[in-house]
Amino acid sequence: MVKFKVRVEVWLKDELVDAEGKTVEEALKDLGYDVSGVRVGKVYIFNVESESSSDVERVVVDICERLLANPVKDKYFVSVLGHEV
Amino acid sequence: MKPKILIIRVAGTNCDSETARALEEAGASVQIVHTKRLIDRLLDLSSFHGLVIPGGFSYGDYVRAGAIWASKLYSKLMDEIVSFADSGKPILGICNGFQVLVEIGLLPGLGEFGLRSISLAPNDSGKFECRWVYLKPNGSNRVFMKYYTPDRIIRMPVAHSEGKFIASNYILKVFEERKLILLRYVMPNGSPAGGVYPFNPNGSYMDIAGICNVDGNVMGLMPHPERATYLWQYPDFTSKIYGELEYAYGDGYWIFKSMCDYIIEEII
Amino acid sequence: MRYEVINIPPEVYIFHISEFSDEELIDLSRSLRLNLNLVELRSIREYFRTKLNRGIFDLELHSFSQLWSEHCRHKVFRGLIVDENGEPIIDDMLKNYIAKATEKCNKPWIVSFLKDNAGIIEFDDTYSIAVKVETHNHPSAIDPFGGAATGVGGVIRDILGVWASPIACIDVLCFGPLDYPMDAIPRGFKHPKYLFRGVVKGIGFYGNNMGIPTVAGAICFDEGYVGNVVVYAGCIGILPTSSYKFSSKPGDKLILMGNSTGRDGIHGASFASSDLKEDSERISRSAVQIPDPVEEEKLRRAIIRIRDEGLASGITDLGGGGLAVAVVEMADRIGGGARVFLDEVHLRESMLPWEIWISESQERMLLMVPSENVDRVLEIAEEEDLKTSVIGELTENPFIDVYYHGTLLCHIETSFLLRPPKARYVAKWYAPKLHEPFFDEPMDYGDLLCKLLSSPNICSREEVIRTYDHEVQGNTVIKPLHGDYGGPSDAVVLKPVSNSWRGVVISVGVKPWYSRIDPYWMAASSIEEALRNNVCVGGRRIAILDNFTWGNPEKPDRLGSLVRAVKACYDFAVGFDVPFISGKDSLYNESPLGPVLETLLITAVGILPDIRRAVTLDFKYAGNPIYLIGLTLPELGGSQYYRLMGYIGSSVPKVDVKSSKRIMELIIEAMDRGYIKACHDISDGGLGVAISEMAISSNFGAEIYLDRVPRVDVNRNDVILFSESNGRFLLEIDKKFEDEFCELVNSYGCNAGRIGFVSKNSRMVIHGLNGNVLIDLEVELLRKCWKGGLKL
What pLDDT is attached to residue A50? Predict the structure, then answer.
């Protein structure tokens, strides 16, 4: 078993309105910055024990589908940052 | 003449009317105004004797609690607010208002302006906490605390997700030396909560629940005094005698009363 | 399928429905996901053949889909119900059971019932109270956080929709057991723990953000909710009675206020009326709703200002079916029609006209405003940072005309859009084959009591309730968690008017476990419990609300049990003389594991003339006598005790209206005379749990003698301790008024037993029938068990 360090990003799907992003965007505009398209997401970093890097991705996708993301409204990106030697 | 106190609000502010009620009970004449009206210069802050920033979830508490409201105040109204505070007029920030005062750097107001040296971080429990707490007030502040005798233990409710007071050891030392800590969470018997949950509901360093600036006229606190203004708001008032409830005030009332007294004695 | 496309742009479809065969109609409904049945489709075809003689626009088809959905028209409650031989059982349950009960009660203090967005009752000479409870089961199953939050948001808008200012939220939630095995969850469904956390977070998020205290509710756990989560969200508001009026007339402008309209929630209403299927996660992507409480907070400010300045002639919220439903219903209310220009609607993204028309974007309200006031309304909206659009006007001509880019895309009579063909359903109730278990009396009662106190359906809800701000607005007098120990208040009391001591009392009754034995007695018990909880703190002049969550009514057994429950609602509302002022049903709660456990939520709203006289459940003084009022019967069917022992049983608690009503009157009089120091109802877990809760909430203990409990046909300690017979109260009586109290009890002719006294030593001591000590435990231990049962 190898310990992998994993990074997961979770975002609301593009077609859904992001109330938080909308509010932040307006606040930034108030401050005089010319910004648009602000979206807010979450980042998770954790370690997982697994046999191979292909297996770890399968496990993390499962983790996302089960808890970290709600596939109905969220999209997510998984990246394996590295592993213990 | 009654103390004229301004309560400001924005989208998501929601404790303004009960705060106004408590202030009026303490003898103030109160106006609740959207921050926009100040920014558009439809109203002059300096025409008021006191300013209260009430609780709520300004702009949904997105980014950090109070951060967006603070950024608006900071960019559009900071000069007015600073000269208001410099003139010795009292400013009280409750819950979200405390978070705003911290975010704009009016608290603790040590050193350079706008410098943020303290923070109200997410609660240790990771949850929103709505509960009554026991507090030990520091009666040495004459603006907000003058009615609290040295041994008094008071009660008020807290209701927040981001109320954990954090500061560096250096700042904490300054706070202690200059007696800037106005409220601390304690056990029901008055001994320090020592960070023990739920008596210290959020994990605040040194059990800090409320502080003031060096001049003592700007105060921020996480508990809600407006929700402890009357005895019937207390969680155990049904154990009281019927007659007591009509005339007696709750612990929170005396902060507003003290603020009004101060305005009458020092400002008007 | 015969159709043509016109390019306005965008492309709009016209279907030559008059020439469609039945098969084509079904095909049409399926391909556009209209969820209309053949009878309804034929009725539309007939209308277009004979009356309009033209093709039907896609926007018109979607209008029918929304307006004729179960969610909007309550086709089951409004329908004809027959038995398996086709003989009528009841026609129009809403009219002939629910509304009829209210009419029979005939209360002069009802301002509005069963017709507007919320039920309204008088509070005092100046103010009225508005109440509404909604279900949001399906959206919460798909996205627990967003579904629950938008459920709260929706019911708050119902309150705003009768010009009331929201003063409290309530929520009742039902989940599968939190320790349910992961691998037994059907594919595509979520684990109860995930749903529980998400839903609780969503409810807190919305209420806390809006600054509306979430004060009351209940949480039930049962296997019957594994595939079907139940989320009831309720809201209570206050309004000056004089501002409740509807004076809209032709020519008044339609103003859409709040969030921009987007593609979210499209088909929500018809989706809510269909079974949850394995693939509902995929199908219903468009049904996900995103909550934005800050937007709604702004709406609240603006609407109350518009109310106080008297600027609008009418108002309604946008819920299921979006603009289509709101506009058509308002047009119907003035007996006219409406002209709507969809180009005017402020949008978030580019959308097809029919999508704009039925979008269920949250945080929007529709106002009817006389032309001369439009500018002022827009000004207020601007001051509160709200977006608005004037989208059209009400008309005398009783047609709904919808334009897009100058093209008329809908022209149908208002009344036809609101009159789906009468539905006919078959109902048959099958009494379950259950029997009473036989087992020896347990040995260790202390252990048993601790187990019950920490069991999921009895233990403290503190973990959840503390995440809800139940104090905001500063008017929560009796809180959901009472005192330093967070005792379980029977009801909450609010003091909504600053210069008045008058209070509003809110309580709920929910007894789903009894459905397994008989939904009739389940409904009766739910009503009785809601009333009893209200009386416990001093509530009187009570009005109630019904909220049904049931399975697929097209299956005769499901409907059979529903009819039994609705019949009980009629019988016991009339019996207790309490009117229904509002209600809602959520049907089609089915999953691969079967139908939802049939659940009726009864919400009771009472009045307390002086909140300083409120009574709570905690013991107040050592030495005061404890009385049990009401009879204990061998009624353990569906009880928490049997559940713990692994049984269901058949002896479901019944309700003796006459005696129960008499007892409630006695309690209120004794309270007003100041005899009662503490009061608690005996409910889930029976006497054993109720007496423990009174001690847990206080610094005292109690000494109890079971042989003094008034009872019939009961001679076992466990039956006395854990029977859930209705109509019973535990009272701590002020020692100095004990004689007067007993006299009063006698004059009322109620059953009462002096079962013990409040003790100083904070131990719970219970003596059995033959005088032996059954239980002798530190109250602190009971408190620990009770408080440790539920983790968020």
Answer: 87
Neighbour tally for C246: CB within 10 Å: 17
Active site residue B224: yes
Q: Which tens digit of pLDDT belongs to each residue from C98-154?
A: 999 999 999 999 999 988 999 999 999 999 999 999 999 999 998 899 999 999 999
Q: Is B4-267 a domain of CATH 3.40.50.880?
A: yes
| Structure confidence by residue, pLDDT tens digits, C734-749 | 999 999 999 999 999 9
Give the mean model confidence (pLDDT) for residues C594-602.
Answer: 97
Backbone angles phi, psi at C47, to 5 degrees: -65, -45
Question: Which positions ≥6 away from B4 have C-beta within 8 Å?
Answer: B28, B29, B31, B47, B48, B49, B50
Average pLDDT in the B2-22 region? 96
So what's the pLDDT on residue C461?
Answer: 97
Q: Domain ranges for chain A, please list them.
A: 2-83
The domains of chain C are located at 3-68, 616-792
For residue C281, pLDDT beyond 60: no
C-interface mutation test, from A23, A25, A63, A72, most C Cβ less than 10 A away = A72
Confidence of residue C279 (pLDDT cuts 50, 70, 90): very low
A18:C292 CB<8 A: no
**Angstrom distance (rounded) from CA C642 to CA C724:** 11
Task: Name the active-site residue from B15, B95, B212, B260.
Answer: B95
**Chain C closest-CA separation from residue A12 CA (Å):** 10
3-state SS of C203-226 is HHHHHHHHCCCEEEEEEEECHHHC
Residue C338 pLDDT class (50, 70, 90 cuts): very high
Instruction: Give domain limits for chain B.
Output: 4-267
Tell me the shortest Cα–Cα distance from B211 to chain C, in angstroms: 22
Q: What is the mean pLDDT of chain C?
A: 94
Neighbour subunits, C (≥3 Cβ pairs < 8 A): A, B
B114 touches chain A (CB under 8 A): no
Assigned token pair, C272: 């809510």
Q: A 14-73 residues with CB below 8 A of C?
A: 15-19, 23, 66-67, 70-73
In this complex, the residue of C142, C292, C349 whose CB is nearest that of residue A19 is: C292
Q: Which CATH number fits domain A2-83: 3.90.1150.10, 3.40.50.300, 3.30.1280.10, 3.40.50.620?
A: 3.30.1280.10
- Which candidate, C339, C324, C357, C353, places its Cα nearest to that of C399? C339
Look up the pTM and report it.
0.94
CA dihedral of B25, B31, B35, B40, whole degrees rounded to 10: -170
* Chain C positions in Cβ-Cβ contact with residue B238 (cut-off 8 Å): 478, 482, 614-616, 618, 620
pLDDT at C283: 44
pLDDT band at B84 (very low <50, low <70, confident <90, very high): very high
pLDDT > 90 in chain B, percent: 80
User: B60, C470: Cβ pair inside 8 Å?
Assistant: no
Assess contact for B62 and C292: CB atoms under 8 A. no
Q: Into which CATH architecture does domain C616-792 fall? A: Alpha-Beta Complex (3.90)
Chain B residues with CB under 8 Å of C477 CB are: 232-233, 237
Question: Any CB–CB contact under 8 A between C644 and chain A?
Answer: no
Quick check: C263 and A73 CB within 8 A? no
What CATH number labels C3-68?
1.10.8
Task: Decide if C596 contacts C122 (C-beta within 8 A).
Answer: no
Inter-CA distances, C324 with C182, C267, C362, Å: 41, 12, 14
Cα separation, B226 vs B21, in Å, equals 8
Contacts of C490 in chain B (CB under 8 A): none
Q: What is the spatial distance between Cα C250 and Cα C397, in angstroms, rounded to a whole number?
A: 9
